[in-house]
Amino acid sequence: MHLDFMDRLADAAEAAVLPHFRQSVDVENKKTDGFDPVTVADRAAEEAMRSLISQHYPNHGVLGEEFEAVATGAEHVWILDPIDGTRAFICGLPTWGTLIGLKSNGFAQLGMMTQPFTRERYFGDGRTAQYNGPGGAAALKTRTCAKLEDATLFCTTPQMFSPGRLEKFRTVEDRVRLSRYGIDCYAYVMLARGLVDLVIEDDLKPYDIAALIPIIEGAGGRVTTWSGDNAVDGGSILASGDPDLHEAVLDLLAL
Length: 255
Prior knowledge:
255 residues
């Protein structure tokens, strides 16, 4: 039932967002001491999803990036990021996505990442994960990576790390085979597809990560904070395709 409803949420977000992609849109900066862009597409997509949730699950809470949180102490809370990767969106790059998560009793229960332009959807419930899009439907499975020296690492930008955490990140990055930046939420679903081994990031909000946890864990990977705790509320995040590699990297990231 919830998967069908998440598809409805994704459809609503797609209808609000896609007409604005690779078009001229006004960009508002939400920060006075940096750059945190938001567009009419972000707000319209979140409004569309919130409207459906209030109609069908009026007792559920909602935590989204663009509007005030509602009933976050409820047993079930929808966690929404209408455009994760707004910087990519305004540059015309298709590495953004809509994140739809359901937190139940403090843990990420269900998650979906949808990329309307490429027609891809990724869904997970923490036990299984699946892809739907070009090429048809397929189960998702992370890959084994026994050695850090064989790993591929993704991160949106090293600028997200505080100085002490940046040093820890570099300790891992200096040992991997390949590192890439600027992939946003796409990094996490590529990990779930078995194409990437590690994603290491910092200062994430709940709406940046909650939807992605059930997808990666359903595909066989792990997602925690750098201290090994529940990552649903964000913070410093490590996602790994290989659970054994995850433990080794946690040791390197320990503060």
